[in-house]
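ok so heres the complex, two chains, lmk if somethin looks off
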Amino acid sequence: MKILAALIRRDLTLAWRQGGGVGTAAGFFLTVVVLLPLGIGPDQVLLQRIAPGALWIALLLSVLLSADSIYQTDFEDGSLELMTMGPAPLEMVVLAKAFAHWLAAGLPLAILAPMLGFLLNLAPELVLPLTVAMVIGSVSLSLLASLGAAVIVGLRRGGVLVSLLILPLYVPVLIFGVSASRGALAGPDIFAPSLLILLAISLVALVSVPVASAAAIRAYLK
Amino acid sequence: MELTGRNLACERGGRQVFAALNFTVAAGHALILRGPNGAGKTSLLRMIAGLIEPAEGEFVLQGGHQDLEPGQQAHLVAHQEALKPALTVEENLQFWAGFLGGGDIERALEALNLTALAGFSAGLLSAGQKRRLALARLALVPRAIWLLDEPSVGLDAASQVKLQALVHTHLEKGGIVVAATHTELGIRDAATLDFSELAA
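and the predicted structre for the whole thing:
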């Protein structure tokens, strides 16, 4: 546990000092959310209707923005090789790195997003369901992003490729995330099941992503 | 403790790098790998570290931790220094100490003469200083097998002496050193494995 804590602490320090973490992602998020009403026009009813979906799409893209850096520098400077020689299994190392990415990008954005909802005339009673859905959904967003980063780790300039590989995998998160975000407005018989499915997606990702990422990284190092 | 390689073969990208390689290093001894570029010295080190699979043959480690791979009982100092330029010298060592299960940062800084640089960002270090910081990992966390890939590249005379002392202390404690080098490292009683003879 101490071992993984050392890794998480280092990744958070690096994210903080080098930027590319929450700062850039939050700036990107803000820009997308500001641009949207400019493009659509000041139709308040329309904005209110699309607000949850628009915030979710902005969240997906912002989380992806910092994804390719999860393993890239560690691969290039040889740290990743040494991590495979450490006492912790690579699956746990990978999970710790995904967790650090969630702490540095996924979680702050999920909390920030509903607050930016006022720019899109988000209905006030949706703020809480949206926050809950985004915090749960962002776990799988960070995990899947780290899987994409692991798959392209040996490629130069693989950033765009991560987006191409991972965005399709985000579709279920988006669908159930949005339907959970509509919360009480959509009726309780839609809100609760959507939230549970979102939770299930995150749990499945939690179990399967470390195994897949570790396998991808081992294949590259060989 | 004894590390043995039996009938090892290495294939990289479909090309046979070496075959039928045998070696034995006992505790307290060093094995120096010599040979032309591309002869497979680095590949052998990475094989012992468990980073690449041998195409044939196997490693046997007698007397180490039975439930750990040889690679998990080894330090590898390769060409890539595994340093983060955004962290200070001390923070870099702190991370590896934590990640590798605890180590003595003061001693590691001392061993490679880095104490004065402890608060500097690693991105500001010269090539030789970076190498010293990478080598400091050896003194940081005790591990039985040291795999060194041209460890003296970029080191000044004083640091080379420090490295020699570090290696000798490790050997006296019963450690194993496998080092690939083109220069003279000045390690006492070291056996040599010459790759140029293998190719023939």
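quick notes: Chain A touches chain B through 26 residues (CB under 8 Å). thats all i got rn
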